[in-house]
Amino acid sequence: MSLLDLFTSGEHKRARTYFAGLIQIAFADGTMDKKELKYLENMAFKLDITNSEFTKILAHPEKYPMDPPLDYSERIEQLFNFTNMIFSDNEVKLDEVKLIRSLATGLGFPLDNVEKVADEAIHLVMNDNTLRDFSRAIKQVNQF
Predict the structure, then answer these.
(1) What whole-number distance in Å separates Cα of residue 83 and Cα of residue 50?
(2) Which residues span the domain enclosing 93?
(3) What is the CA radius of gyration of the chain?
(4) Within 10 A of 114 (CB to CB), how many other CB atoms are there?
(5) Cα–Cα distances in angstroms (integers) from residue 123 to residues 35, 61, 80, in the given order
(6) Residue-wise over 32-68: b if at least 16 C-beta within 10 A, else e?
(7) Global pTM value
(8) DSSP-derived 3-state class of residue 32
(9) How would DSSP label each residue in 61-84?
(10) Structural domain count of the chain
(11) What is the tens place of the pLDDT at every residue in 57-86?
């Protein structure tokens, strides 16, 4: 662990692990196209990911284990963005669906409900739902 890692804020660490999840989705089908790269660049800007961090995470996203936010609404928003990443190239592949289920588990959705939550997330994004509608629907599907 570097000295910089000791002083990195917890929030920025979560942003990097979240960004690594987005990269994993982009590569789930084996390649990253221009639309996926553009989506990643936009998210990097929003998450305050530097160019050097972008390059480092892009090279080894597996080195950044999931560190989900404690807030349930923020976890739903991350699921929304992960799911949007799948659709950035206008197609959904089985490997991407499996990865969304895995990331939903990492975000803290219950194991016995993860498939239902992930499938609903895909359906909602496929139908161009807003984050607000997405959040409301996921809360319905994931009642506990």
Answers:
(1) 23
(2) 3-141
(3) 15
(4) 20
(5) 20, 26, 11
(6) beeebeebbeebbeebebeeebbebbbeebeebebbb
(7) 0.80
(8) coil
(9) GGGS-----SSHHHHHHHHHHHHH
(10) 1
(11) 999 999 998 888 889 999 999 999 999 988
